[in-house]
Q: What sequence folds into this?
């Protein structure tokens, strides 16, 4: 069917908007990610419960040589801040248990943090949001999905001037190409051979992931935890609809979970899916059960469908129990699980990621194999309790073999 409608829109600004019809395709084709500084002695903390967001953040800033620490939630961030005074903190707003505003206020009470710039990371970049965050006590505002030049601009403005050094043209020349002295460096353009994926706009993704390797790793990360995040949202939805005593807490858990899913989908360019998630997020914010009831199942079905839609893209869709992988014996598996537990206890993100990568390099019995994606998601979320729970189940499975 075909239909049309007219929207009467108030003119808010008479300034020309430019070539509107070119859209992200025109922008991405001419886009070059420029960087003009390094800060190897600066130490930054990024706080976000979404692992994919943290990895993108770290990857975007790799050329600056910043020392970047990660926290998966407010409590962890406060513990880390208690032992280190960072030069700058980036704080996600919507996190479970303790949101970014409360975490920021508590962090300000730690000696030395009254002078540390704390910038909020948020996908709620609506009119007036910047002013509200500044009034709440933040020093700055970064909209998500993060755009790299805005991120670097914030860093240059907020980091101690003596730690911001001129960019070195020969740095990482294998990955970046310089444009002459002082000109900085730019990422390679968007590859021409990316596969067509229903609903995924590679041009839009490239605006936030301006490097082919970063696009590939981020899409693979998205696919890996796709079903786990759907399960979490389904669980919150079931509590919301079935247990009146838990309705309030379930509504907040639902809002935070779907907010993270919105951010993940938008980052890799699945804009329609992000739009549906945004509708559900706003419905949860407004406690609109009717809208949630009407859209939830449709959204979950569409979200899960990307397990099939992304199959084959960047090698996505292979089984963990691949025939080419060696089998892991019980002692080896238990040793790796102990290493992972220790890494999570120490908040050692790199060590935890390394153990997960090693776990994926072996084949397992069916019962253990089925738990690998769930364990990877728990580690990605820096959720120590969830990771311990999965590892306990894996150890019981080993004992029963």
A:
């Amino acid at each position: 069917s075909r239909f049309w409608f007219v929207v009467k829109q108030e003119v808010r600004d008479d300034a020309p908007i430019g070539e509107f019809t070119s859209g992200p395709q025109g922008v991405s084709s001419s886009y070059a990610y420029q960087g003009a500084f390094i800060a190897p002695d600066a130490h930054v903390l990024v706080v976000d419960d979404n692992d994919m967001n943290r990895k993108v953040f770290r990857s975007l800033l790799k050329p600056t040589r910043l020392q970047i620490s990660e926290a998966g939630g407010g409590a962890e961030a406060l513990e880390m801040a208690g032992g280190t005074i960072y030069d700058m903190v980036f704080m996600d707003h919507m996190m479970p248990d303790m949101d970014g505003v409360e975490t920021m206020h508590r962090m300000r009470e730690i000696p030395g943090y009254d002078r540390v710039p704390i910038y909020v990371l948020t996908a709620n970049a609506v009119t007036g949001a910047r002013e509200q965050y500044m009034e709440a006590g933040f020093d700055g505002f970064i909209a998500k999905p993060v755009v790299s030049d805005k991120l670097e601009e914030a860093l240059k403005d907020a980091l101690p001037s003596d730690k911001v050094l001129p960019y070195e043209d020969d740095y990482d020349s294998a990955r970046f190409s310089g444009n002459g002295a002082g000109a900085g460096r730019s990422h390679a353009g968007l590859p021409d051979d990316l596969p067509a994926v229903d609903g995924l706009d590679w041009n839009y993704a490239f605006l936030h992931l301006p490097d082919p390797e970063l696009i590939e790793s981020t899409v693979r990360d998205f696919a890996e935890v796709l079903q786990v995040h759907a399960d979490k949202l389904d669980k919150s939805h079931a509590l919301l609809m079935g247990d009146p005593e838990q309705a309030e807490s379930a509504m907040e858990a639902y809002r935070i979970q779907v907010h993270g899913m919105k951010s993940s989908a938008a980052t890799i360019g699945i804009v329609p899916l992000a739009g549906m998630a945004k509708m559900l997020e706003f419905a949860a914010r407004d406690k609109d059960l009717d809208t949630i009831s009407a859209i939830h199942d449709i959204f979950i079905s569409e979200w899960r469908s990307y397990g099939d839609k992304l199959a084959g893209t960047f090698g996505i869709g292979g089984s963990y129990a691949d025939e080419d992988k060696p089998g892991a014996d019980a002692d080896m598996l238990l040793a790796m699980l102990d290493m992972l537990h220790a890494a999570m206890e120490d908040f050692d993100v790199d060590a935890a990621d390394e153990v997960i990568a090693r776990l994926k390099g072996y084949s397992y019995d069916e019962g253990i194999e089925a738990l690998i994606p769930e364990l990877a998601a728990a580690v990605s979320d820096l959720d120590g309790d969830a990771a311990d729970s999965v590892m306990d189940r894996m150890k019981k499975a080993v004992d029963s073999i």
In short: The longest strand covers residues 43-47. The beta strands are 37-38, 43-47, 67-71, 88-92, 118-122, 140-143, 165-166, 177-178, 185-186. DSSP finds 16 helices and nine strands in the chain. The longest helix spans residues 212-242.
